[in-house]
Amino acid sequence: MTFSIVARDPQTKALGVAVSTAVPAVGSVVPHVEAGIGAVATQAHTNILYGEEGLKLLKAGFSPQEALEIMLQSDFDREKRQVIIIDGKGRTAAFTGSENDEWKGHLEGKDCVAAGNMLTASLVVKAMIETYEATKGKLAERLLKALEAGQDAGGDKRGRMSAALLVAGEQWRNETRPTLDLRVDAHHDPVVELRRIFNVSRGYFQVSE
Fold first, then answer.
1. Which residues pair with 5 in a beta bridge?
2. Are 111 and 135 a contacting pair, CB within 8 Å?
């Protein structure tokens, strides 16, 4: 019931997640990021342990694929899950359970993975990957562009309500804000609202260029 992308900037080593869905407060459950370690999006029948435990396993030295397999093995409801992971080395893993609603699926790109379920079409995920790979600049901007492309391609077929952008590793001039964590919890056009909040925040907190 969601579309998302996880990605890594090979130059700055920043990691992040962008996500939108048709239910409230997606930013509180789907995106998980730790600087230098990895980024995870856990969605569909969301289980936040995939984010929390996934980052712990990556930190312990497991690859994204190994971490994902460990978590899936102990989950009786795994076929209801959708999970995408990227680590600090750019390695990726993805899983879309068979019990997710159509359209469902994931696609891996260069330093990124996108996934979605209950989407209007596969074009949503494809547009996100293509846009991310074609966009230049900071990771936060590339992720937001990819999310916008996913929404423009159709997004969640049930509608729109919330969106989030979570990035760790890109330095702010204000060192008390090492992580960019922006959320739209309930809005009629959440991706557009997320862009507005991003632009305001970039100017207010003076994100380093």
1. 18, 114
2. no
This model's pTM is above 0.90: yes
Task: Specify the CATH number for the domain of residue 37.
Answer: 3.60.20.10
pLDDT at 175 over 90: no
pLDDT class for 158, splitting at 50, 70, 90?
Answer: confident
pLDDT tens across 98-121, in order?
999 899 999 999 999 999 999 888
Q: Can you tell me the distance from the alpha carbon of 99 to that of 78, in angstroms, rounded to the nearest whole number?
A: 9
- CA dist 190 and 155 (Å) reads 11
Q: How confident is the model at residue 207 (pLDDT cuts 50, 70, 90)?
A: low
How many domains is the chain partitioned into structurally?
1
Specify whether the CB–CB gap between 163 and 139 falls below 8 A: no
Helical (H) or strand (E) element with 117: strand 112-117
Residue 63 structural domain:
2-205
> How many CB atoms are located within 10 Å of the residue 83 CB?
30
75, burial (CB in 10 Å: exposed 0-12, middle 13-18, buried 19+)? middle
The H or E element spanning position 184 is strand 179-184
Tell me: cis bond preceding 172? Omega within 30 of 0 counts.
Answer: no
Beta-carbon neighbour count of residue 49 at 10 Å?
13
Contact 2, 116 (CB under 8 A): yes
